[in-house]
## 1
Amino acid sequence: MNQFLSRRSFILILTMSILKIIFKPMKVLASSLNSKEEWNLSKEEWKSKLSTESYYILREEGTERAFSSQLNNEKRKGVFHCAGCDFPLFLSDKKYDSGTGWPSFWDSIQGSVETKVDFKLIVPRTEYHCSRCGGHQGHVFNDGPAPTGKRYCNNGLALRFVPD
Ligand SMILES: [Zn+2]
């Protein structure tokens, strides 16, 4: 019995190690990709520019607690900008209540975000980030409403809302 268990543990450890090796080269932070040169700031520069919470999300691909952002209930007309570089990312008429606890949009402003696949939860997810500063915003899923069928699930702390 003990031998069986240790054999199972061995196989598990072996499998995990192999997975780690396979996925390691893909663990590239979004914030290190695609940033335009003038927004290619150092860690220290970003830390001095952002709150601790926003830094964690934008530059370290963190996720805020569900239902923690005031922007979740923001229903006014306006534009949602990147909290890192102030680039306009989403329009209020593309925002909808997804019930997930994060500000959700069914479309982004054209060219404002770029995507990559991440494996943080093992299952591949499509991460997206600001196309100007590379700051992580959230993940995009294919269970959104018509006409796009997309759900951009965004961290409120990564956004700044500018009412019309
Ligand atoms: Zn940005």
## 2
Amino acid sequence: MSDVSTQDDAPAGAPGPGSDGTGREPRHFVRMVSIWLILSAIATPLFYFLVGPHVPPGTMTSTAEENQFDFNILMVIALPVLIAVWVYLGYSIITWRSSKAAEPVGGEVARSHLGVQTGWIIITSVIVLFLAGFGTVELISNHGAGGGEGPNPVWTPTSAHILPVQVIGQQWKFTYRYPTFGGMETQQLVLPADTTIAFHVTSLDVIHSFWAYQLSIKADANPQVDNVAFTTTRDTGSFTVRCSELCGLWHGAMYNYGRVVSKTQFAVWAKATEVATAANTKLLPPFAWTYTPDANGADGGYYPDNVDPYSPSEVYGAKQPAS
Ligand SMILES: [Cu+2]
């Protein structure tokens, strides 16, 4: 890889006829590896310990923590590769630029270096196979990617206390119902810290996607589907909820904010909100895991309005009138 400037078939780094005045070609390969080793040994731990704890999506939940760890491991493997490319590029520009007398000579010597070829295949194979194994272990041991466990979760948390929160998407907002607090519905997603949450994600109209970025939760919100995603909250703080499935004209405006608060604060908030929304809750349909979408589009209804003044064709499943 390095000794393309020599005309003989000496191994990489071996001295050869050179043009540096000493009659010996510098050991370019050894130099490059040394520079790469030093830079990698400095940059990799610096990244892991200084930048790593700040890598998105943070540590607000168990799933966020796991994702942050995975991103950091990927970066720790990628950094030395990146540094190798930059070192080779930089070294080549300095050493073999055209204004220098020592023009590298390519040809067969450059193409058929057994050590370089074997090393390349071994190193890239080890990296790719390790990442495949690491990814598989992380996927299984952390019970799925991103907390989206689907309508029939293959695993359920072992935690004794799980707070169910229903996320309802509709054009174009999210609302949240708390079945353990009288089925109240709010526009604020408030969660207690250090608690396992079961998000039950559904939709009243078209397909949406519930993406709570800092919680590292992303789950499709589909009508007639109760899509479950688990996570355990850790730190308190605020987070952003966005729709991440194109769902119509105001998709881009379909976001709001949530908070993870202490358990005591949550208990106070939940009780107060349950009382404050009691009159509203009475007007809502009873809490259910899914609701029948409103056939008349984006008015956010829970039931088909198969009553006047709507025509039968506006009701889901209705036969189209003969034209
Ligand atoms: Cu949407």
## 3
Amino acid sequence: MRLTSLLLAGLLACAPRAPAQPLPELGDAAGAAIAPQVERRIGESIVREIRYRDPAYVDDAEVTAYLESLGRRLLSTIPDARHEFEFFAVRDPAINAFALPGGFVGVHTGLLVAAESESELASVLAHEIAHVTQRHIARLIGAQQQMQLPSMVALAAAILLGGSRPDLAAGAAAAAQGTMVQQQLSYTRDFEREADRIGFRTLQEAGFDVRAMPAFFEKMQRYSRLGDDGTVPSYLRTHPMTTERIADAQGRAASAPYRQSLDSLDFHLVRAKLRAESGEARDAVEAFAAAVRERRYANEAAARYGLVTARLRARQLQEARTDLAALRATGAASPMIETLAARVQQASGDAAGALAALGAALQRYPGRLPLIYAYAQALQQAGRHPEALATLSEPVRRQPQDARLRTLQAQTYAALGKRLLQHQAQAELYLLRGSVPAAIEQLQLARAAGDGNFYELSAVEARLKELRARHAQDERDAKR
Ligand SMILES: [Zn+2]
């Protein structure tokens, strides 16, 4: 049942039912699009709900880093991409992805696991990116110009998330009138067509195998017919879109020059990690052990990586070390293998060895966020807080929106007894979570801490002033 309803939700987001009324021209809706800043704010508030309150959010730095890198590869072909994109994963078996207003793209783990090639996964991402760059969502929401921001958030959440995040969408759907949602959805058939066409071009220009797009569309259609309670929802049966979309994609792929595209190692590692970390640990060990034994795998290193990950979960440390050696023997190289090796060492009680290994890995793969997190954390645990701070400073400067970096930084300041800096970092964390009043409170604590120098105090003052102004503006917006 769950799979069916989730698939339906996905289809609402990405392959909506055929509308009865005539479709408006895409150009007509463009004029009504909401402003990009408003769009970003809507997306931010939805993504905050997912990131900090939805247990299905995949809080895994390596999975996120992989999706980010795949997304960047596609985006590098779009010279005027004005949106700042962010990619993340949601634990959900339905084969789906969704784009939120403002450039946030969510990918279901079901999609990651079902994609048999990186090009297949990329074809769905390219489609979602096109929804954003073509400002489809902005235009959907913009058709209701008089709407207040909270209602726009609710409407966007109801349209885009539907049943796939029911806890989030429930309040949203209640807030947005059902009829209005239906009306809005009627735009999306043309939007789907446009997202497919532009997504195809992106896929091609980024050097992926374009035949993956029709192949994956077919796969999605096959899966969507198989609800696990055996019933097929009526509007799927009468759904003409998917067949048309497949035919269009096939036509485009047939006229494109053949191009082979090799999957990255991390594509296979991420999928193995997700599989190794779902279900019962012992079942995961069995599945990967059998795959390795019988050589049933698309990628040997990934199968061995999955086995080590599963053994770590099952606390089979001796075997994990042996299998890690076998993984190393394949010659495969990835920062993901380095963090896994460090985790095995940590679990085996060799904290010093893990710390040294992470330090060396960071030399080899500089700037890789998952390694930076793991290394800073290991330094903290070893009580080497000044080094942890030094490791974090440049990444925080480069990526001030990264909550994990900010958390590590705040923890390190706390351990060092630097109270002004700790509250200042904490303020930025609250801000990322959408709470301006809590951020202001932290900045007041920072100001009163009494252990900062002139420059630090000035920075706190300036930020406090800025946030108070923002808070006052928010209050006025809410009353309007
Ligand atoms: Zn779509």
## 4
Amino acid sequence: MAAPALVHSDGSAANLLVREVHVLDPREGLDGPADVLIGNGLITQVAQPGTLSPKEHIEIVEGRGRHLLPAFVDPHVHLRSPGQEHKEDFETGTRAAAAGGFGLVIAMPNTDPVLDCAPLLRSAREAASREARVPVGFLGAITRGSNGVELTEMAELRGAGALGFTDDGRPVSDAGLLRKALRYQRLCGGVLTLHEEDPSLSRGGSMHEGAVSAALGIGGIPTVSESTILARDAELAGYEQGRVHFQHLSCESSVRAVAAAKERGFLISAEVTPHHLLMTDEHVRELDTRMKMNPPLAAESDRMALIEGLRSGVIDCVATDHAPHARHEKEVPFEQAPMGTTGLETAFAALYTELVLPGTIELSLLVERMTAGAGLFELPTPRIEIGETANVTIVDLQSEWVAGEHGWESRSENCCFAGRRLRGRVLMTIAAGSVAFRERAFSVVSA
Ligand SMILES: [Zn+2]
Ligand SMILES: [Zn+2]
């Protein structure tokens, strides 16, 4: 029997009535006030507002002035377990996810050791099944140790529950090897998920190559480091008819390459992070190591192209690339600091504040793009529909907060949005039918 795709620790099934909440689910055509009854972890009724009355053992949640959305899906997180639990583990990482409104995350295999064989993947899944507050899916490595030399036993990893394969953190530089991986992917299924970077171009770089890197005298990474290898791999995916997902697009030329490959009917998809949508290399001027990530924050023209790509659908979904690092690891000179920012707890509020409130994109589009990651990995998309398992998040779009002011649920605090004033706060997340997060101040009417 095949391993289940997702694992999490079993919580108690939610029983609650959310009264007079604004329900928004673009896929279901829902956008208006309703009463939503969740019974035994399932969505059992969606009714006219004010028509459902409380029953015994049902908690009442005041929904007026709040929104009920499908829980978000993050197809790209680093939970750091096994081996780097000083940065994060399944419990803290999924607590951060739930606090950000996420009801499903996909964990990267570049742990210590790398998840490059079935026994390692199985034991990580076992740990997640004890510790994770929201369902976690896993990718296995494409190459042994993610060293880009020898393919893993991809079919065995699939059999042990891998949703796909990635060497994230590194590219698969050898085109012949990637071609072989594409052939195996066609045989065993799953998604080949690619971090695109040409080390011969990025080596020695700590930030985007441009006017800011020149002014600071810091080694730059040119955008062609990403886009040339992405174009190569899109071509290979088309040639082998493989299923490829491109991670964390960061520049205009990559958006163009994805658009061109999609026009030709290739089986490709792409993601973008909140930080690449909202920040540029100008944010690196102060040499704050929280602004150091891979791929680096690029130019304003790149940022604009990413937003347009997300709007048009060339880019399918938002992914945080949540990458926790301990304080002592980040508190070093910029060029020595590890790359990565956390992002689960700020993703929705940052994008709502910076893209939806100014009118750049619609809230419904943001919700669609923050949930689309599930379908890309052949997982069921959270839906607000009677009979579905409750995977929902309740948000207060009026609430203002300063990111990080009360600390973080994540074990790490290297968040590039720390200190920003944001609008939109997650009050409650229900994942796989259980309450995974409840904002401290968010009390119930009665129980
Ligand atoms: Zn990456
Ligand atoms: Zn990553």
